[in-house]
Amino acid sequence: MKSLGKATMCSWMMLLLCPLLVGQSYTITDLGTLHGNFSEGLGINSSGEAVGVFDTNQSILAFLWTALSGMKNLGTLGGLESEALGINDFSWVVGYSYESSGAFHAFLWRQGRGMEDLGTLGGSFSVAQGINNFGQVVGFSNTLPYQTSHAFVWTRKTGMHDLGTLGGNNSGAYGINTSGEVVGNSDTSVSGISDAFLWTGTGGMRDLGSLGGISQRSVCHQRRWRCHRIFLPAGE
User: Fold this and answer.
1) Cis before residue 145, ω within 30 degrees of 0?
2) What is the predicted pLDDT for the residue at 225?
3) pLDDT classification of 209: cutoffs 50, 70, 90
4) 2 lies in a domain?
5) Over 70: is that where the pLDDT of 5 sits?
6) Rounded Cα gap, residues 87 and 46, in angstroms
7) What's the angle, vertex CA 144, arms to CA 141 and CA 145, rounded to 5?
8) Whose CA is closest to 83, among 195, 183, 221?
């Protein structure tokens, strides 16, 4: 009887919620391009402001799109290409940009101040992938002397801080919340097996494990360096 009562209650709750769910409507907005015939949205904030890249027929450049102003070219750090990957609720944008030297560095872009170079962990490149509303930035950078890539968190006060790894050579951070908690992935051994992690200022990097598999494979975009991680079942 208790089970029947719970089931009946759940059914009534669904009947109450269904009209709300059915009543929701969504629209797809074409953000257009500034040049060329290609653009890609890669990040969005709670106000619907979007960031990404557009094609110039010669390179790709970072953009910020708002409903009021449309698509804005964010420029570069002196090189030919840039890419915007994240945005917070204050319209602060992060990503990476090439410099005139050919190296690419993480950047923070703010209205009226332009693009700021966030530096590296000692190597030649870095990429910023997430930012919270306190202006804390996360991403990854290569290091010296071994030229491995490590996750970082950047703040105005401390600069770029190396978050280390789960025991392997490489790690990368992809998101950060308002509590300063960071998520990403890290190699767990030199063989390249990689797990998701949660990093906190007090507890360091915590291995979140996997969904039953033993490894992940990196799949790289054919047009750009940027890679995506997919989970593979055991034995793949």
Assistant:
1) yes
2) 43
3) confident
4) no
5) no
6) 9
7) 150
8) 221
Report residue 22's pLDDT band, with 50, 70 and 90 as the boundaries: low
Q: Has residue 3 been placed in a domain?
A: no
Nearest C-alpha neighbor of 42 from the set 141, 176, 186, 174: 174
Which pLDDT score is estimated for 236? 36
Task: Count CB-CB contacts under 10 A for residue 179.
Answer: 10
Q: Which amino acid is located at 123 in the chain?
A: G
> Which pLDDT score is estimated for 16?
52
User: In the predicted model, is pLDDT for residue 192 greater than 70?
Assistant: no
The tokens for 209 are 């494990």
* pLDDT of amino acid 194: 87
Does some domain include residue 52? yes
Which residue, among 101, 127, 37, 111, has the nearest Cα to 75 in the 3D structure? 111
Domain with 203 in it: what CATH number? 2.130.10.150
Query: How many structural domains is the chain composed of?
Result: 1
Taking the C-alpha atoms of residue 127 and residue 138, their distance in angstroms, rounded to an integer, is: 8
Q: What domain range includes position 98?
A: 23-208
* Dihedral sign, Cα of residue 102, residue 103, residue 104, residue 106: negative
CB atoms within 10 A of CB 159: 12
If you average pLDDT over residues 153-158, what whole number do you get? 97
Q: What is the CA radius of gyration of the chain?
A: 21
CB neighbourhood size of 45 (10 A): 18
Q: Distance (Å, rounded) from C-alpha 113 to C-alpha 177?
A: 24
Look at residue 75 and tell me if it is in a domain: yes
Give the residue-averaged pLDDT of 92-120.
Answer: 97
Alpha helices of the chain — where are they, by DSSP H? Answer: 2-23
Structure-block tokens of residue 202? 């007090």
